[in-house]
Design the sequence.
């Protein structure tokens, strides 16, 4: 059986059962989905593969949304950790920074850190000057929660 570069999609060529097509299997947090895209029904190998890819993508998004609904109320609203040298706010992924600029002024903000779906580290700043310290902290915490939901659910 040839290997495709499509995650969750396998080629089925069974002469004994007269089954030819692309088989989609998807499992997400205990829920599973499976469907065969027959070459005959979809007009050939290429068209069946295209339909299988679309189905896989839509099913993945649908299952992720379902899981987000189930677990969204179980996400911690404000994950607390002890304050230490590396975390000065008590909230995971939110850090207070005081940076001196070349002109002598001080830039104060909360920096939000997260990892995107590709594994790349990202950050965003919420300035005290622009929002005020309290509002900047609230916005930073809210933004961090959005990024956690977006990238992990």
Sequence:
């Amino acid at each position: 059986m040839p290997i495709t570069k499509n995650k969750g999609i396998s080629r089925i060529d069974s002469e004994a059962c007269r089954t030819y097509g692309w088989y989609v299997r998807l499992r997400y947090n205990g829920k599973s989905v499976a469907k065969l895209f027959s070459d005959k029904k979809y007009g050939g190998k290429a068209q069946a593969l295209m339909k299988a890819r679309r189905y896989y993508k839509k099913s993945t998004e649908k299952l992720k949304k379902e899981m987000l609904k189930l677990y969204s109320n179980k996400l911690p609203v404000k994950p607390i950790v002890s304050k230490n040298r590396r975390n000065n706010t008590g909230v995971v992924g939110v850090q207070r920074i005081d940076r001196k600029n070349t002109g002598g002024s001080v830039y104060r903000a909360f920096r939000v850190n997260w990892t995107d779906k590709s594994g790349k580290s990202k950050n965003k700043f919420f300035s005290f000057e622009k929002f005020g310290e309290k509002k900047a902290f609230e916005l930073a915490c809210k933004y961090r929660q959005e990024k956690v939901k977006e990238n992990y659910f």
Q: What stands out?
A: The chain has four helices and six strands. The longest strand covers residues 19-28. The chain has a mean pLDDT of 83.
